[in-house]
Amino acid sequence: MNIGDTLPPLEIPVTRTLIVAGAIASRDYQDVHHDAALAQEKGSPDVFMNILTTNGLVGRYVTDQLGPRAVLRKVAIRLGAPNYPGDTMTLTGTVTAVAGNTVEIRVVGANGIGHHVSGTVTAEVPA
Predict the structure, then answer these.
(1) What is the pTM of this model?
(2) Are 80 and 114 in contact (CB under 8 A)?
(3) How many CA atoms lie within 13 A of 113 on its CB side?
(4) In this structure, is the dihedral angle defined by the CA atoms of residues 66, 11, 54 and 28, taken in order, positive or negative?
(5) Which end of the chain is more exposed for a tag (fewer CB within 10 A), N or C?
(6) Terminal CA-to-CA distance of the chain, rounded, Å?
(7) Could you give the dihedral angle defined by the CA atoms of residues 41, 47, 50 and 53, in that order, rounded to the nearest 10 degrees?
(8) 8 Å CB contact between 69 and 101
(9) CA-to-CA separations, 97 to 57, 61, 74, in angstroms, rounded
(10) Contact yes or no for 89/110 (Cβ under 8 A)
(11) How far apart are CA 61 and CA 8, in angstroms?
(12) What does the DSSP assignment read for 44-92?
């Protein structure tokens, strides 16, 4: 990999099941991640994805590209626009640094209302 290389985009359909399953799997029982009526009472139009699910999807995106032997060393992300059911999040990535077996990738995940996630992933790819 070289600085400036881009990863192919990954489109992830944001389903209600993905949102709820991700929240349950990460033991995030906040009602805004599984109960539409309570999410609406709190001002959200619907349930929305939690950061732990997003973090996992970003990690998956990078390791799918780097291969099964890649080891994530650092994932630093920031959330923006919520991921609501019925939308699609498209992840894209650009290599920003390479040092030996270590690569840093800038990742952006966009949906229909804006950037859901942005940040960097540092991974080690054994020779």
Answers:
(1) 0.94
(2) yes
(3) 13
(4) negative
(5) C
(6) 12
(7) 170
(8) no
(9) 21, 17, 13
(10) yes
(11) 10
(12) -SS----HHHHHHHHHHHHHHHH-TT-EEEEEEEEE-S---TTEEEEEE
Q: Tokens 């033991």 sit at which residue?
A: 27
Contact yes or no for 38/96 (Cβ under 8 A)? no
Amino acid at 101: N
The number of residues making up the chain comes to 127
Residue 31, token pair as written in the block: 């009602």
Among 90, 82, 102, 103, residue whose Cα is nearest residue 58: 90
For residue 26 the two structure tokens come to 């990460």
Q: At what angle do helices 51-66 and 16-25 cross, to 10 degrees?
A: 100
